[in-house]
Each structure stands twice: as C-alpha cells, then as structure tokens.
Known about the structure:
Blueprint: H1 2-28, E1 50-60, E2 66-75, E3 85-91, H2 105-113, E4 117-121, H3 132-148, H4 150-153, E5 155-165, H5 167-177, E6 196-200, E7 234-239, H6 248-259, E8 264-269, H7 284-300, H8 312-316
Parallel strand pairs: 3-4, 3-5, 5-6, 6-7, 7-8
Antiparallel strand pairs: 1-2, 2-4
Amino acid sequence: MLARRVARRPWGIMSLAVCVMCAACICSARPTSIGLTDLWEDTPATRNLLHQFRIYKRNQLPSHLHQQLRLYFVYPELAKAAERRPTVVFIHGGGWGAGNPDQWFPQCRYFALRGLVGVSVQYRLKSDTTTVAECVTDCKSAIRYLRRNARSLGLDPEKIVVVGESAGGHLAAALGTIDGYDEPGEDIAVSGVPNALVLLNPITDLTTRWGESLGAKAESLSPLHHISKKTPPTLLIHGDADQVVDLQHARSFHEKMLAVGNRSQLIVLPAADHAFAIIGYGPDHSVARTIIETDRYRASLGWLDGRPLLQSSEVSK
C-alpha cells in the first residue's frame, strides 16, 4: 500500500503543476487591447467570461400570471464570490416602452475584461398597464437587490455606477435624484441610490414634451427638478446632432449639478445623433469613445486601474 502511495505521489505533483501552469496561461491570455468586434459573445477575448442571470423581482400581471424581472451579469474569468468588485449597471433606453437588456451585453463584457462586474437590467416596459413610475420603481428594486446580495454576488455595494441611455438615462438619473416610488414592502433602509452616474443622451426634464402623458406627476418624476447635494457624481455624454433628445437636457442637468456644488462632467460629441453609444446602431467611433470615457470616469473615481482596453484606432475612425 505504501509503495502505491509513493508511486502515485509524482503524478499528483505533476497534476498540480499542470493546473498551476494552466491557470497562469489563462491569466496571461487576458487581452491588453481589444476592438469592438471582440465584445460579441464567444469570441476569443470573451468566451472565458462568466455569464449568468438572477431574478430580482416578480410582478403580477393582469392575467394573474407573474413576470420575472432579471439582472444579467457578466463576470471576469476566475472571479470568486468572496471578492468585492466594483460594478457597472446598464439601463437600456427605448422611450420606456421598448428596448431590452441585451443591447448592453457587449459593454458588460468590456468591463468584465477590465476586472469589474457588468450588469444589465430588465424592467417593466411602459404600456397601458405600466407607467414610467413603475419603471423607476423596478430600477430602484434592482439596485437594492444588488446591495442586499452583494456578498453572494461578489460586488462592492459602495462602488456601483449606473449607466443609462435615453429613457434609460432618465431612469438612471431618477435613481440618483428622486425619493419615493419604492416597491411597497421593500426594505428602503437598503439604498437604491447608485454611487455614481453615467448619463448618455438622457431625458432629464419631464416638464418638456417627454412628460406630457404624465400630467401632474411629470415634475415629480423629472430628475432635473430633484437635484440636490446628495446627487451622486455624474458624467453626461450627449451628441450635438441629437434629433430625439435635445442636448439641453444634458446641459441643464450639468449646470444645476455644478450650481449646487456637485461633481459633474459634460462631454458633447460633435455631429453625434441619438443612441450613439449602442453597438450596431451608433457609429463605431462614438460607441468606442463612450466606452473609453466611461472607463476613464471609473478610473477618476479610484475604482479602476490601468488604461482602457479599446484600441485608440476605434475612436479615430
């Protein structure tokens, strides 16, 4: 029996050495630069990332069935639950009544390659039975879910940046400015306010045509009218050729943030139209510029190290 143990030991040592070498190879294989085409699923750069989803909320439908709302996660390879990684949460646009979470999966993969956790939010879409207020409520529930479950999800609950585009920009801004509109029975002691915001061609003023259908509730759901000293640091990016949401939405938000002494940065993209940040819709140089500026903003907060992975040629095209 002792002879058998001795005979087996070299193989055990060799296996351990192989495992260590494989782990080292995997780590060293992480890209130091990528292009936008690398961010599609199952490319050599992204296929080792960890994709999963969690159901964060169930809502009863008029049919008495339930709709399950999901958070879609992309983790770095070899990520461990015990880690506390900064998180980037994306909220899609589409006029509150369209769009879907998967339009932000490429950006989730990018930030997972940078060592963060990328999350994309599914929320109820506006309809005859669902209002903008309920969209806000769902997004608050999503942030609270992340914080309540930060330990098991491997997240740092104090380093959550929310990125929203268009109507999703409104929802992100609402998270950082508007009190109330909480899910009944939810533990509001858990904060639904992000630690920082990135607003892309956002709708910030619902006293404009964007809030006509809301009537008297328009101002109560208008982020511009609820900016305070508690509003998180914000980066705004807007195109000066936007034909859908006027640039003034971003400018007014930025100016009011500065007026109350908050940290705010506004980047105006020359000749950029609406939805410039969405892969497959906006031009590649605008998509890449937005990812790089969001990366740099995270770094300026002290939550990300190193240089952006996207190649500079992607921006200059």
